[in-house]
Amino acid sequence: IPGTTIYRPIKQENNGTFVPNVFIARIGSSMYFANASFIKDVLMAYVADLEEVNRTEYIVLEMTPVVSVDSTAVHVLQDVVNAFR
To answer: One digit per residue, pLDDT tens: the chain, 85 residues?
Structure first.
């Protein structure tokens, strides 16, 4: 939402603006060994699906609901970062 630090889906917020080349994803739960690879796979699939419409140069992970991240999840996040370098 312009002028704020709030990110919301365009479908949810009429006053929002589209940010070119930026993919914003909300992680809705803690990240740990059992779901870390799934989260990475979903993120990369969304980015691939958007490639023709809006090439992703930056990913913003909105992780307000995340209360813990284990070492496996940290390594997976590093893999995602490395994929965009």
So the answer is: 677 777 777 677 777 677 889 988 989 999 999 999 999 999 999 999 999 988 999 999 989 899 999 999 999 999 999 988 8
pTM flag (> 0.85): no
Taken in order 70, 24, 78, 53, is the CA torsion positive or negative? positive
Q: What 3-state class would DSSP assign to 9?
A: coil
Phi, psi of 32 (to 5 degrees): -150, 180
Q: What is the largest CA-CA distance in the chain?
A: 38
The answer to whether the Cα torsion of 5, 35, 70, 74 is positive or negative is negative
Cβ pair 19, 40 in contact under 8 A: no
